[in-house]
Amino acid sequence: MYVPLPARRTEAAHYAYPEHLRPQIASLPRAPGVYVFLGESGPVPLYIGKSVDIRHRVMDHMRTPEEARLLRQTRRIEFTRTAGDLGAQLLEAQQIKLRQPVHNKLLRRRRELYSIRLLRGRPEVVHSAGLPFASAQRLYGLYSSRAAALQALRAIADDNRLCYGLLGIERLPAGRPCFRAALDRCTGACAGREPLAEHEARLEAALQERQVVAWPYAGAVGIVEEGLDMSQIHVVRDWHYLGSARTRAEARRLVAEAPAPGFDNDGYRILSGPLMAGQHRILLL
């Protein structure tokens, strides 16, 4: 996602097409992949983006007055072809983390990750540093902070009349029901009006749509993506994208050379749907 520079008031009125980029734009392919805007100084990119049609997407940037300042800074446009949109998404997320472009503010930082885990019917907020999210069971939701996870738990409790005290959000007064029970915002499990087992079952049912799927393979796999004129094997382990290869032998080398990855939120976001839906052929590596 592009985060534009604040526009000066006169900028849109004086927008001019960046003629110095016209020859580079003409050489861009009408195909999927990732593109990079580079400035005059240093190796840090100005912006990294992806598209199923690189030239068309870059031309969209060129037509936008609000991006005029970015374009004036751009001196070179690099690109990398991919077989399709899946590879473009994976490569974009990887390159933004590695190269830290100036204007990809939303993806360039490595985020803290928290989740809600059910343990013996009780929820707890857990951090990815202390728990392998890729293999952990009964995790629900991925959050950037402990506060965000607790806020999500409160919303679930409010929507389902669950007890804050039994969820660990508030301390229960000794021998008394929670305050929300008196307001009929809690069904009264804390006062014995609802069996604890039913309260726990309702909590788990409410969490189901947020379930984090554990990595379904024993190790790394290759996800085959077929394009019109090329195919790729996207190598993934524990929801972490390791790179793309043309052959199974190249894919195995990527696995052997890669350090042990942790859970990757972007990889999970991009891959979990297509993988669970069986949209691509899988090679065990």
The structural class is alpha+beta
Number of helices: 10
The coarse overall form would be elongated
Most strands sheet = 4 strands, antiparallel
Low-confidence stretches: none
Beta fraction of the residues? 15-25%
**Cα Rg:** 24 Å
The total strand number stands at: 10
Largest sheet, order of strands side by side?
Answer: 9-8-7-10
Domain count: 3
- Average pLDDT works out at 89
Determine the fraction of residues in helical runs and give it as a percent range: 25-40%
Keywords: DNA damage, DNA excision, DNA repair, Excision nuclease, Hydrolase, SOS response
GO molecular function, one term: hydrolase activity
InterPro entries: GIY-YIG_endonuc, GIY-YIG_endonuc_sf, GIY-YIG_UvrC_Cho, UvrABC_protein_C
Protein name: Excinuclease cho
Describe, in short, the structure shown.
Residues 30-105 form the GIY-YIG domain. This protein is α+β, with helices and mostly antiparallel strands.
Characterization of this structure:
The structure is a single chain. This protein is an alpha+beta fold and 285 residues long. The chain has helices at 22-26, 54-62, 68-73, 85-99, 105-108, 146-160, 179-182, 196-207, 248-257, 265-276; strands at 33-38, 47-51, 76-81, 114-119, 122-127, 139-143, 221-226, 231-237, 240-245, 281-284. 32% of the residues lie in helices and 20% in strands. It contains 10 helices and 10 strands. Strand 4 (114-119) and strand 5 form a beta hairpin. It starts with 21 loop residues before the first helix and ends with a strand.
